[in-house]
Every structure is written in C-alpha cells, then in structure tokens.
Amino acid sequence: MVGFMMENLKPVLSFKNVSVSYKNHLALENISIDFLEGSLTAVLGPNGGGKSTFLKAILGLVPLQSGEIQRFHLKPKDIAYLAQQTEIDRTFPLTVHDVVALGLSQTKGFFQEIDQKTDITIQKVLEKVGLKETANRSLHMLSGGQFQRILFARTMLQDAKVILLDEPFAAVDRYTMEDLIKIVKGWAAERRTVIVVSHDLEFVQSYFPQSLLLARNVIAYGPTKQVLTLENLRQAKRNSREWEVSNLENNKTMQFFKDNV
Ligand code: ADP
Ligand code: MG
C-alpha cells in the first residue's frame, strides 16, 4: 500500500486494489491508497491519466472493474463534487441564486420552498466568494472566474465532509485563484478532506501539503515535495506515452479494419 499515517487521524476513504475500465480501455489500475480526515491533496498527472475517473470512482459514478473503495461512515450527502468546467452545461437557464441554492437541496430536499432564512444564508455565501451583487444574474452572463466562485459558494452550503474538485482553477484568473485557494485551505482547517485535481505544479507546491501523482497507476503519493520529483514526473510522462502509443495502434488497427475488412 502506498500511503502514510499521521497520529490520531482517521482514514475517511480507502482504495483497495481499485481498477476502472471504460469498455476495453483501462483508466485506473490497481490503486491502493488511503485519505485521512482533514487532509488536503492535489491530484496531478498527464492528460488521460485517470484523474477525473479517480474522483468519479469516489462518487460511485463509474463502476469498478475490481477492488473496492471503503467510504467508512460517509453518506452520499457527505461528499461534495465540483466537476471539470468542460463537463458542466452553462446554457441551462438558471440564476446564480438557483445554482447556489442547489447546495442545500440535499439537506432540504428539492423543490422545498426557500424561506427567508435560507435566502440570507445564500446571500452570506455569495458575499464570502465576493459576488453578493450577482444573485439574480443568469449563468451565461458570468465569466469563468465568477462561475467558479458560484460553484464554490454552492459547495460551502453543502457542508460536506469530503470535497472533490476537478480542475477548479483551470479557467480562472490569478486573482480568483488566490481567493478560492483560501476557501480550500479553510475547508481543510475545518478537518474536511479535500482532494483537488490541478496541473499547475508551482501552485500545488505552494499550497498543497500532499499530492497524488496519477498516470493510470499511482506513480507517487505523499508529501508534495517527495511526490513532485523530476524522476516521478518523468515516469508519469513515460506511462502516458505508452498508452498513447497503444491507443494509436488500436486506432490504426480499427482504421485498417474499416478500410480493408
Ligand atoms: P484525466 O482526467 O486525467 O485527463 P480521465 O479520467 O478523464 O483522465 O480519462 C482517463 C482515460 O479514460 C482517458 O483515456 C479517457 O479518454 C478515458 N475515458 C474517460 N471517460 C470516458 C468515457 N466516459 N468513456 C470512454 N473512455 C473514457
Ligand atoms: Mg480530467
């Protein structure tokens, strides 16, 4: 098992020999790691290395080919998830207020009337993310950075024990990034377990105490300094070249069959 333990901290999630495949494409292979309560982890790795799949596996959104993920005492509502922006449809006709209110839906139930108290709560979180004037705006009017702030506001309201963020800083300006990382740090200080996919090495080195380098397999997991070595990064790259080549071969074979068979 790759992992490390600190005194008094309990694991909240535990991967045991987990593999995930899409049809015949292996996305995660034999992952065995634990996440401790209150830990703040960055997930890094090459494109197609299985980072998004890894978060989806925690949520139970993809079937495991083998192994298991123990979620200890977590109920579904204890896990908050912020998908990669490319996977979110922003043309849906919702206002900022609606989107943030969705963060409460798991505790209050969908379609329950939003009372005045709730409205104040929503105003408060919007203020915390620096957007109190935007409640009535519709989603497509927001910049990438504003949209990400809104999603953070929603996540705040969900009050989850485990928070999973998939590339939350990819489409935002530096200023927003720094505001949002403060929120992330705050969550970890409240002993929530936070797992964030990011490909910004410098940023990860400055803010994340631990890292997981993922390239279908776990290349390294532990204190960020020990994970992000040149040697480990090279290994991750080598892995990704291998599957790129094998994808190419598969595609060539497919093409051959299309052309000739
Ligand atoms: P990352 O987030 O690290 O870029 P992903 O987890 O999105 O990687 O993808 C891992 C691999 O699985 C990639 O090769 C990707 O093409 C493939 N993959 C991801 N989602 C699907 C899907 N729904 N169907 C088929 N293949 C997928
Ligand atoms: Mg991804």
Describe, in plain words, how this protein is organized in 3D:
The protein contains 9 helices and 10 strands. 40% of the residues lie in helices and 23% in strands. It has 261 residues and is of the alpha/beta class. It has a 6-stranded mixed sheet with strand order 6-7-8-4-9-10, sandwiched between helices. Strands 1, 2, 3 and 5 form a 4-stranded antiparallel sheet that branches. It is globular. It has a domain of 168 residues: P-loop containing nucleotide triphosphate hydrolases (Rossmann fold). The site of magnesium ion (MG) has 3 residues, from helix 1. Adenosine-5'-diphosphate binds next to strand 2 and helix 1.
User: What Rg, in angstroms, do the CA atoms define?
Assistant: 20 Å
Structural class: alpha/beta
CATH-level-2 architecture of the domain at 1-74 and 161-177 and 185-261: 3-Layer(aba) Sandwich
Shape: globular
Strand content: 15-25%
For this structure, the quaternary state is single chain
Give the names of the bound compounds. Answer: adenosine-5'-diphosphate, magnesium ion
> Uncertain segments of ≥5 residues (pLDDT<50)?
none
Total of helices: 9
Range of helix content: 40-55%
Overall pLDDT metric = 87
Major β-sheet, in short?
A: 6 strands, mixed
Distance between the termini: 46 Å
What is the spatial order of strands in the main beta sheet? 6-7-8-4-9-10
CATH structural fold name of the domain at 1-74 and 161-177 and 185-261: Rossmann fold
CATH class of the domain at 1-74 and 161-177 and 185-261: Alpha Beta
Order of helices and strands: EEEEHEEHHHHEHEHEEHH
Specify the CATH homologous superfamily of the domain at 1-74 and 161-177 and 185-261.
P-loop containing nucleotide triphosphate hydrolases
Secondary structure: number of strands = 10
